[in-house]
């Protein structure tokens, strides 16, 4: 390889010290991000053009995790801030679909290693020939291949359109011949790449780490491993570290490949020189400033506990303090904190919680620890106190581990009596057999208080009305009846739990409350939300089942005098009453009954209520917005409608904004196409994302974009803030013309008036979620990543998906927020979002 390749990188531009790297990172952190029109649409998809100029941008690339030796290091520690691993920006073996053998995670042995080396080497040589890239020979090529095999990657950036088309595109892969699959095919045209890359390219968060590698003027390769057997003062640098040297060579080749994809060859040749350096140090303990690490180097001793009831170890605390990596860990902490145990019915000692609550209870019970009852002080799930996202850096002190545990977990379980019944709701469970259920119930009541009645139950969303028969309905009814009898015959408590604390348990919880309270499904939903303030989520199939079962459940409710008299007689002889029976006539009535109109409307909704994000803030969909009576019942006084129109708002509604009289259009149901003029505006007819005509208003002559895009008016007792002409297309801006700031001011007015604000778009996952994230950034004084996680967890069972442009806007908007510093860089933020969403992407 040439030492200086114009428009590329070289074999290494030298070494950099940890202190110098920290200085570069501080400069990079303080530097404003480029304006959106500089980096978009380049950030949206695979790279067919040269990257925009981003001076002083630094990419920090870890070549290898910490390993072995004495002391014994934790592999996932010793991570420098904002650093990337090879699989973040290079095409991984699991990304590609051409070679099945590369997707096998269990490859072992010399024969497998030889085959893998041959595959990667053939890929390099064939693509080098096809793209006319001059590749190194001999030991350098062996080093590149060996590094790719060790890290299970191919030597191409994820943004390389040619490599993606050839190795990762299912459509292309299924259409080419076997000879091409063996590596004999030529290069593709730019048009063929554009055809396959258009799908959802404005949410390609997974590409952003590779984009950063393309953008960076300085790339620093590092690992924290000294050469085997070495001791100070022998130093770590490119000459002594095979991993760092090999990664430099892989990057050199990957950048050469992608530069061949740039359509303007002259621009590719004129690219500025980009430095590729290696982190050099002599002593791991002394050479590094503490602030350079996201997670400092830790030994295996950091996983030790000083007490059997200690929950968070030192390694857990250090992992929490590093928001650059493993957002799955932070999401789990946030979820268990948000949905931790709460008392749903005091009279019957009914609790709901999550898997962590159950595990903590068992741990404390096993070790004889009795937690204090702090029911009155526990924050509600939508309050900032129920979040780890609002915490600063946590100091670990093994002598006071209880304080740390209390910050990260619901350590003080709020119960005065032990648990008698523990029900785990999961998708693997079936309805309990009534005879077996009653036998276990009788045995439990005869045993001492230490005996626990454990039960599994089907989760929410796993059943359909057509799956129910007499046996399953009897099981549903008698499960409720058994729980009631235990609450009457013992002073002990019942816990319903599932992994996330609400999704799987909601079907059983609402079923039992209809039976217990003798209330309609609709009333139980609102009481559970408004008075018990417990997070829950009902699928539409659950609403259908409960809608048909509610009359039967209420007919057997202990709230009714004649039922209570019979049920409570069991207490006189100290044992349970016989199980309840369902007649054929009762069973038929379940399916023949007509649902109330209000419940029919509920069946159209997801949840069915909008998600409560903060005490004053709800996030939901257009379907929620079309139900003003439901919003009133929730106490909503202000509505923010982002890019959508409300069916119940008058078509000729006159609004005033900044002294300009406006007339708003409607979108649902769509009006017939007409050419009727609208005062002060120009009528436009466009096809919306919902595939129906939307009547929208563009600003008239001389009015400017601001007046046409934002308006505030009142109708039917609601204050309504309307943002028009904003689509989820990866191009439209939410911060343009000051719309976001004015929207947050509107929310402020709602808070000052003592009201509640409902924010919606079409589905409630992108445009409106972006507004809610901004409100949380402002209200909680946290950065974008923490606010994103806070909203994500509270948008119950629905994955928020702001597009790349909206997230970039928020990161730019954060630069103007006093007291909030950009600790997490754009590419690291995107990597975190991509990791969280990977299992949901088909």
Automatic annotation (TrEMBL):
Domain Tyrosine-protein phosphatase intervals: 609-819
GO biological process: nuclear DNA replication
Occurrences of domain Tyrosine specific protein phosphatases (ranges): 741-806
Stored InterPro entries: Dual-sp_phosphatase_cat-dom (IPR000340), Dual_spec_PTase (IPR053239), PPS1_DSP (IPR047949), Prot-tyrosine_phosphatase-like (IPR029021), Tyr_Pase_AS (IPR016130), Tyr_Pase_dom (IPR000387), TYR_PHOSPHATASE_DUAL_dom (IPR020422)
CDD domains, sorted: DSP_fungal_PPS1
Superkingdom of the source species: Eukaryota
Pfam families from the UniProt entry: DSPc
Keywords: Hydrolase, Protein phosphatase
GO molecular function, one term: protein tyrosine/serine/threonine phosphatase activity
Gene Ontology CC terms: nucleus
Hydrolase listed as a keyword: yes
Gene3D superfamilies xref list: Protein tyrosine phosphatase superfamily
Name of the protein in question: Uncharacterized protein
Keyword Metal-binding found: no
